[in-house]
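Problem: given the chain below (183 residues), write out its structure.
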Amino acid sequence: MRSRMLIINTDAKTAAAERSVKMAHAAYSTASGRAAVGTLTIGDAARASGVSAKMIRHYESLGLMPRAARTGSNYRTYGEREVNELRFIRRARELGFSTGHIAALLGLWRNRHRTAANVKALALTHATELEAKVRELEGMVAALKHLAGHCHGDERPDCPILDDLASGPRAAKQPRRRSPHRG
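Solution.
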C-alpha cells in the first residue's frame, strides 16, 4: 500500500512539474520575446524537476549533468532534456542509488543501444545492497531496544546505554583456531 501511495505521489509531482515547465517556458518566452527551447533558468529547472538549484549545480560538478548552456550574462539555461535528466536523477536518489550507480544508469538511459540486462543487473545489485542495509538497521534497532530494556530510566545516574556507548565499538568475535598439536 505504501509503495502504491509513493507511486501515486510521484506521478502527481511529475504532472505538477510538467505543468511548471510549460508555464516557465511560456512566461520566459512572453517576457523575453525569445523562443522557449533551452530557456529555463536554474530556478525554473529546479521547480520543474523537483531538484534544488544547489543540487543541480552539485550534479553538474560531479558530471552527472552536463555543464549548462550559458546566456550572454552568464546565467545557466536548461531545456526539457535537462529537466527530464534531473527528474531521472531525483527518482534514482529516491530509490537510494549512489551517485556512481546513477551515473551508470544515466549512461544506460542515454544509450539507445543498451540492453535491459545491464539495467536489471544494476537494479538487482542495488536491491541486494539495500537488503544488507536493512539487516544492519534491524540489528541496530534490536541493540537499542535491548539497551533501553536494561535502562531503569529513573533518577539514578547509572545508565547502561551510556555505558555501552562509552565502551566503544565491539570487536568482532574471531573464530577459534584449532591448535596444530590437537588432533
